[in-house]
């Protein structure tokens, strides 16, 4: 099997597993215990916190470990709303966010808040000036993803931060897909809150962080003990956190090399596919894109049928975000770019990763070209 669905999740790096193993079996320590078992476990968490913080240019004490990107996004949005004390918050976001931001925003709307949804252009990008035009005097929070999971477009988050800082508005970015593919530096971005998930960068599933800039006040979503400064109580997922730390250390060290390799593979793939398959469109082509993501529309093809047939041939790809592809709805991102429902349904996302080999690219090109041709012949 060739795996070109690295935006859905990545394989756990063996070195990461090695660091996790002692915490999965053997060592019994609860990091809150004062005996030496507990203190050793606390030190492992502190080391991981430092590694993750370094990866995004933050201070260790600015991180809150969560169960993943979804919880981090929820904590950013609901935590900020709860801390503000208002029951009718004004929030600005984009129509291409992941469900982990869209659905909390819908909940905020239902609870009496107002959400302004920034549009994107045909290239899959928000326009900073249009987004800033949505700010109101009472806007509490702006949430704009750093990179889109479906098409890989990199949003101009940094260009919003002067406007949010001047007006005292919180700026959150979901950087889950950007991690390990482009540099992330919370200071350069000028964000107050940032979400990451370990399983998108060769770490374990079920662990993430919310970066909370020093001085920013949030309220927790769950209540219990004092862990994570009371913002995320509950005994820590020690093995997961340790694995996340190691994954960030590796991703930081390999970032430039990984990105260059993935971009080379993606570029060879897109060039050959466009040459061989008439009626192919590269979605997001004219925007800054993640180096690994290729979202292609094939005229007259049903994307889901293509994904199923490719799977049978030994190539794993996707019609979009794993959590919404089960719903068989055309991508809301492509719809927001102005694509017709038929065009959106004809799209497939191929996402390259660190472990793809050059031979994978040649084989993938062959399989996609053959399968598209077969599906087109079946229609005639
Ligand atoms: C942009 C984005 N945000 C959030 C998430 C959710 O992260 P997790 O799977 O860790 O809950 C994902 C996962 O697909 C994502 O792509």
Secondary structure layout plus pairing:
Blueprint: E1 2-3, H1 14-24, H2 36-56, E2 63-66, H3 69-84, E3 90-94, H4 99-110, E4 114-118, H5 128-132, E5 139-143, H6 158-167, E6 170-174, H7 186-189, E7 193-197, E8 208-212, H8 238-276, E9 280-283, E10 293-298, H9 303-313, E11 315-316, H10 322-325, H11 332-336, H12 341-345, E12 347-351, H13 358-379
Parallel strand pairs: 1-11, 3-4, 3-5, 5-6, 6-7
Antiparallel strand pairs: 2-8, 7-8, 9-10, 10-12
The chain binds pyridoxal-5'-phosphate (PLP).
Structure write-up:
By secondary structure, this protein is α/β, with parallel strands linked by helices. It has 2 domains: 2-8 and 255-379, Alpha-Beta Complex (Aspartate Aminotransferase, domain 1), CATH 3.90.1150.10; 14-250, Type I PLP-dependent aspartate aminotransferase-like (Major domain) (Aspartate Aminotransferase, domain 2), CATH 3.40.640.10. The chain is 43% helix and 14% strand. The protein is built from 13 helices and 12 strands. It has helices spanning 14-24, 36-56, 69-84, 99-110, 128-132, 158-167, 186-189, 238-276, 303-313, 322-325, 332-336, 341-345, 358-379; strands at 2-3, 63-66, 90-94, 114-118, 139-143, 170-174, 193-197, 208-212, 280-283, 293-298, 315-316, 347-351. The protein has a 7-stranded mixed beta sheet with strand order 2-8-7-6-5-3-4, with helices on both faces. A 3-stranded antiparallel beta sheet has the order 9-10-12. A two-stranded parallel sheet has the order 1-11. α6 links the parallel β5 and β6. α1 runs antiparallel to α8 (238-276), α2 packs parallel to α8 and α8 (238-276) crosses α13 (358-379). The protein starts with a strand and ends with a helix. The model has no long low-confidence stretch (mean pLDDT 96). Pyridoxal-5'-phosphate (PLP) is lined by residues 68-70, 73, 98, 100, 145, 149, 174, 176-177, 197, 199, 208, 321.
